[in-house]
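Researcher: I'm comparing several assemblies side by side, and this is the next one on my list. It has 562 residues spread over two chains. Same procedure as the others: predict the full complex and return the structure.
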Amino acid sequence: MKTYLDCLPCFMGQALRAGRIATKDEKKIKALLDDVGCMIKEIPMDNTPPETGDFIYKKIREITGVFDPYKKIKEESIHDALKMYPGLKQIIKNSDNKLLTAIRIAIAGNIIDFGVNKTFNLKEDMQQILKQDFAIFHFKQFVEHLERAQSILYLGDNAGESVFDKILIEELGKPVTYVVREIPVINDVTFSDAMDSGLDHVANIISSGCSAPGTILPLCNDEFIRQFEKADMIISKGQGNYEGLSSVDRCVFFLLKAKCNIIARHLQVREDDIVLKASNI
Amino acid sequence: MKTYLDCLPCFMGQALRAGRIATKDEKKIKALLDDVGCMIKEIPMDNTPPETGDFIYKKIREITGVFDPYKKIKEESIHDALKMYPGLKQIIKNSDNKLLTAIRIAIAGNIIDFGVNKTFNLKEDMQQILKQDFAIFHFKQFVEHLERAQSILYLGDNAGESVFDKILIEELGKPVTYVVREIPVINDVTFSDAMDSGLDHVANIISSGCSAPGTILPLCNDEFIRQFEKADMIISKGQGNYEGLSSVDRCVFFLLKAKCNIIARHLQVREDDIVLKASNI
């Protein structure tokens, strides 16, 4: 997905929010916004938004000297999600369609996103998404691919959401490789966040090699690319991964909540809709 | 009021919205955002936000070649407001406190603001604001000043809202000078908009000399400054005028709806609160 004009003010807003989490020094935050402002004219509009995100979060690290501003937030998100784990497992146990319920739970986890300008209430939003209609619902194709698959590549998105990914992986019943970001960016899931979420018990965890808040193939490492090419089934969580992979010539199952109107328009759904979309089928 | 860090992404959003109203040429809008982005580092944070607004809207005129992008929108707003005029006059006629009801109506008109990132429904919002509690309510002082005043200077804000200003001016019962912007900026009221709103029947209309979307005294003309100094009572509508005059050493009655959280925090109220605030009393 390319960069839209609406993304440009949003980049400034992201820089402000992240800058405030990294430091209380208003002068450093102003310096960050000055640099991001100047960067606008350098942004190729055919870049995907996470590629620009990569530059912004590098700038945040550079100006504030803080490598992982969202560390504490991520720990809290994982803690909160782990507390919900037993109750959600019970919901799945009592469910008529365990796989579909697990998919809903994994999508609900996608609200734990500090990159977008939205607040969330994990428990309330979870209840709502468990009942919400899908705007795109390629569940039949998902089941067909899953039945045939010997190996599944699962692209993680946010820390905390990763605990709900574990719940879905437990229902998939197939060998899964779980993919994390190379280094901390926003609240995206890294290797240590995935370990803290218990994903090592259900999946092989690898890094995409990408430091952007999304999966940008030209920025990924060889191991990931190999797995991306050979995996029987790819499950991609969240907006950042969708933005990076929406034009890729490969079947990918995108599980996400459309949290901004640009993504929503691109998917031809409405903002706040939930989506299970298979590309290239 | 100074510029806050939160204002910086908002300037980019304003440029995008205004650029889209001025032109359909995405390249021109991108050029505008590039320029506004680069301008961020030049913005003195002790400037008031409308001073930066002045630069942005100059840039819009320069890049798009459109002098008054909001012309049609302003005409429609005035048209819609004039249609409501008879009904609102009837509400005042049936009201226990005609002056207070007219103040509410004038504040409700302040929602017609295309500078902020909000949508509005004139009729519904009017009904709501007619019942809404004030977060700051210096009505007693307003009445005392009004009774003693021989001359009132009334600073207009938006076109359309100007029709509701006329309704308040009719209840003031004193000679009023109505102040408009020097040239079109966003949907702010200009001389011709004030004429179209019928304000020439109830007030003497003058320009502040200021092209910014607010009243910035150092940018105003001599005639306005003279009137500002000698007026017995000053009524100021809207956010832009408040941002320009909040620190001025002069009693000003600010009538507005707090449409962004920065203004709300500055006034120590909540977003969407309505305010009748006397400064320096």
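Model: For your comparison table: The domain at 71-278 of chain A is CATH 3.40.50.10880 (Rossmann fold).
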